[in-house]
Amino acid sequence: MRHKGFLLVVGLFLSLMIIAQQRPYYTQYIMNNYIINPAVAGIENYWDVKASHRMQWVGLQDAPVTTYITAHGPLKKDPYQTATATGFRAKGMNPRGQAYWRDYQAAEPHHGVGFTMLNDKTGPLNRFAAYGTYSYHIGLSPTTNLSAGVSAGFTNLSLDASKLNFGGTTVDPAVASSGVINRIKPDISAGLWLYSKDYFIGLAAQQIIPQNVAFSDNTVSLTKGRLVPHLFLSAGYRVPLSEDFNLLPSMLIRYISPLPMGFDLNAKVQYLDLLWAGASYRYKDGFAAMVGLNLSNTLNIGYSYDIQTSRLNTISRGTHEILIGFMIGNKFGDWCPTKLW
Questions:
Q1: Are the C-beta atoms of residues 202 and 169 closer than 8 Å to each other?
Q2: Is 195 exposed, middle or buried (0-12, 13-18, 19+ CB in 10 A)?
Q3: Residue 235: is its pLDDT beyond 80?
Q4: Domains of the chain from N-terminus onward
Q5: 99/31 Cα distance (integer angstroms)
Q6: What global pTM score does this model have?
Q7: Beta carbons of 162 and 172 less than 8 angstroms apart
Q8: DSSP reduced 3-state for 313
Q9: Is the predicted pLDDT of residue 112 greater than 50, yes or no?
Q10: Do the strands 220-221 and 180-196 form a parallel or antiparallel pair, or are they unpaired?
Q11: How confident is the model over 221-230, as pLDDT tens digits?
């Protein structure tokens, strides 16, 4: 009875891993493209550190909760000539105004490194991951760069049998006593990032190595779960509205087999280099509102609120996500990113 009960319970959760996205969703990836694409590592002149906490579908029991910290920076990167324009905040001048973009120059070839630590918990299932990243940036033209990056690390998948809850159905005590079962898997991601003063295009693949997932309880072993690759295509364009305002529309297409293709449409309006506000639409899922503030040349914050358009909106009070950024070694005094807008 013990083994049959365990087989049934774990089989249910492994089947969910097959039909659902295995990586967490983010809303503020437009403020941290590195969380999706490793080729972004080292794109700025400083170390970009981001910490985020996301509470999805608030009000729904055992809903996903995701926390991460990322950090990436350049190695042996020569200062670009436009550093002066962004480092001095002359009165009445917009550091991200038309003069800055007119004089924009591509970065010199350089290396980038970074790391990610992430924890994603949904009910009794937990995923902890850690990665290191290497990237290389080259110049294609006086205003255009191309970078390639790869992240490698591990993912620890765990199932806490003691927290299994099927409502009015009693869980077999033998199953609940199985405790926490862990499975560690290697994990590799790779990406390309084409960027200029007016646009960016990114292509990334996460969880490149397809792998079976087998939770076992002594003599019972299951191999029905499978980790599958996640593919992302992103693009954005900068539209100057005036000397003080820029409009930044962007999109993200994701494909995770066997799910149908999904996409996000985003729009962000930035005022000077101080603050921004935006909105996002996720296909067949919902809408989000976002706002961010650059408090200094070392600290920025962002907040987003998602509301579902699916039937989840009857039981969920939305999704909250907060992001805090630190710009370490920012010797030019930039208040906002120079390459990611």
A1: no
A2: buried
A3: yes
A4: 2-328 (2.40.160.40)
A5: 23
A6: 0.85
A7: no
A8: helix
A9: yes
A10: unpaired
A11: 444 567 889 9
